[in-house]
Amino acid sequence: MPIPSLLDTDLYKFTMMQAVLHQHPAAQVEYRFKCRTPGVDLARHVDAISEGIDALCALRFREDELDWLRGLRFIRSDFVDFLGLFRLDRKYVHLAPSASVPGEIDLTIRGPWLHTILFEVPLLALVSEVWSRATHVLDPAEGLRRLDAKIERLVAADPEGRLAIADYGTRRRFSRDWQRQVLLRLREGLGPRFVGTSNVMYARELGMTPLGTMAHEWLQAFQALGPRLRDSQKAAFEAWAQEYRGDLGIALSDVVGIDAFLRDFDMYFCKLFDGMRQDSGDPFAWGDRVVAHLAANRVDPRTKTLVFSDALDVERVLALQDYFRGRARVAFGIGTNLTNDVGPRPLSLVIKMTRCNGQPVAKLSDSPGKTMCEDPGYVAYLRQVFGVAEG
């Protein structure tokens, strides 16, 4: 099924895009696709994926969609006016079977950051759905049985309704129709424990809260845009604060590792931001360090929110909720385990920024194997500058 709307993406794509419009409208970037699941033949689906990209590039924002965006407190009217003129351009996307690895695909996005930033999430969702539909016939009853078991477990473990669960599953969903069913079931079954979705289209359609702030690419880009590499992370947080003036205050912590993050996230940022998001590494160790860091900077950790979003399942959510009870606020963004747990193993798909203004950029993940960059020399230099050991 084609992507039906340019709103069918994660909220943080719009929040970052607005900041790009205001601060770096001329920046040029490159993104690359990677399937982390071994032995998957995506090359035979190139034609179907290409047709989906063509359909995506034919979309425009409708007036009712723009009116809804204009009503979000953190979206400015000039950005909505820009979106009224916006379209995704097919010339910025290259797709072909890999010339070097049988079965793999070469999917690259290259062009102005402002005009390419909205490609990532719908392209990942498109690849996921094309592969899922070609390899598995969805059994809705089985999918709902699995989902209901998770809901029952969460409710039973949290009778007071203190959990905060959000859907972060657009990019690796089984299908867009299935994601919609999942969202309706979560709202019905979890009640107030379900706090919203990252998917802007469904937030609008179903009357849910859209959730999201920044992604890795925001901080990665500042490796090329900032005053100097060592200060790039601080520059990215400062630019975010200047754009949103205290709103959307969840900082992403794992672009160059937790050690470097804590060095840069000083008392000013600890007091300014509402919390931090963990997306790689050991979440318990990460939370312990963040709580201690806040306390050392004279900030009560119980006033801040720790957002966990790395490969979560129900058992991990409940363990983290119990571990940090009374120590900090916690919230959970669950992705693939909600929107693509229907039987077969879902694909692990990513699209990451690899260059900005002609310079390599990278993420030094706290999880082994997640670092993605085409220039090993740059990765080594980035590790040296931020004092990050080989993972």
From TrEMBL:
EC number in record: 6.3.4.21
Protein name per the record: Nicotinate phosphoribosyltransferase
Record Pfam families: NAPRTase (PF04095), NAPRTase_N (PF17767)
Nicotinate phosphoribosyltransferase N-terminal domain boundaries: 7-128
Matches recorded under PANTHER family: NICOTINATE PHOSPHORIBOSYLTRANSFERASE
Domain Nicotinate/nicotinamide phosphoribosyltransferase: 164-388
Pathway entry: Cofactor biosynthesis; NAD(+) biosynthesis; nicotinate D-ribonucleotide from nicotinate: step 1/1
Similarity section: Belongs to the NAPRTase family.
Post-translation changes: Transiently phosphorylated on a His residue during the reaction cycle. Phosphorylation strongly increases the affinity for substrates and increases the rate of nicotinate D-ribonucleotide production. Dephosphorylation regenerates the low-affinity form of the enzyme, leading to product release.
GO MF term set: glycosyltransferase activity; nicotinate phosphoribosyltransferase activity
Keywords: Glycosyltransferase, Ligase, Phosphoprotein, Pyridine nucleotide biosynthesis, Transferase
Superkingdom of origin organism: Bacteria
Modified residues (Phosphohistidine): H216
Described purpose of this protein according to its UniProt entry: Catalyzes the synthesis of beta-nicotinate D-ribonucleotide from nicotinate and 5-phospho-D-ribose 1-phosphate at the expense of ATP.
InterPro entries xrefs: N/Namide_PRibTrfase, NAPRTase_N, Nic_PRibTrfase, Nic_PRibTrfase-Fam, Nicotinate_pribotase-like_C
Catalytic activity: 5-phospho-alpha-D-ribose 1-diphosphate + nicotinate + ATP + H2O = nicotinate beta-D-ribonucleotide + ADP + phosphate + diphosphate
Organism: Coralloluteibacterium thermophilum
